[in-house]
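An instance follows:
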Amino acid sequence: MISNLTGGLFKLKFQAMGTQCEVQFRTGSVEGAKEFRVAALGWLKNFEKTWSRFKPGSLLCHINAQAGLGPVEVTEGEEEVLQLCDHTYQVSRGLNDPTSFPLTRLWDEAGRRDALPDQGEIDEVKELVSWPSVEWGNGKVFLPEKGMALEIGGFGKEYAVDQLIAFAKKFKIADCLVDLGRDVSALGEPPHGPYWVVGVEDAREEEASAFRLAFTGKALATSGNGRRFRVIGGKKFGHIIDPRSGRPAENTLLTASCLADDCLTAGLLSTNACILGAQEGLAEIERYHGVEAILQRSNQIHYSSNIHRHVLGS
């Protein structure tokens, strides 16, 4: 659905990638708005069709089904996503391993049967988590062990945000805000500029904003275990898995919100922080020039050095 707001601003609302999405943008004509809508939503639809683990006919599901059996042919465009898998693995120093889906599956099953997996089960599944062992390139990809599985949930939505911003630039749209379920990127300025204002959800109170950030030319991503978790034996276990232990990440950090030049980087660093914990996660974020963050614990909030430049009212 596309609607025309004040100040020449168009709003596009839709459901994609398992979340509610919204794009606000300014262009000179209704026709231009429609062309951007068709191109952006067409790309998103094809991306989901190809890389969703929830669509049995997707390329991703085919790659996983062929694990230990034989290679799968991929196009040049599809191989770009494999390059992203490698990029995320390297940047996260292995904390975001695209082959960690068997661990996610193990803990999802544990949640359904309400029984913790034993250490032997965890160790067995951990053997299947190894992005460096994946054979890819030259138009093919092969998961060498039966039971291995790829999953791009660790960066897919953030990558899609960056792609929609790229589409906006391609269509000469100077002012645009892309929001794919808490993963946001801003370009140009809103009608009453000069910055887009985005709320950061309060990790302790649902549907409430803890901060409002003003920015443009940057992206914001939030990760956390406060809202998404499994309950096993009466105990909450977050959805983010630490591939080092094979268990859900356990620390006092509820959410990490990162502001970076692109949403992919923001998402990787915010997820990393949720695995590493507040102090180590913030130290990691501070290593990256131009990246800022707000990390929320139940009893304390941690800020990067220059985030207050973007916080309204600070």
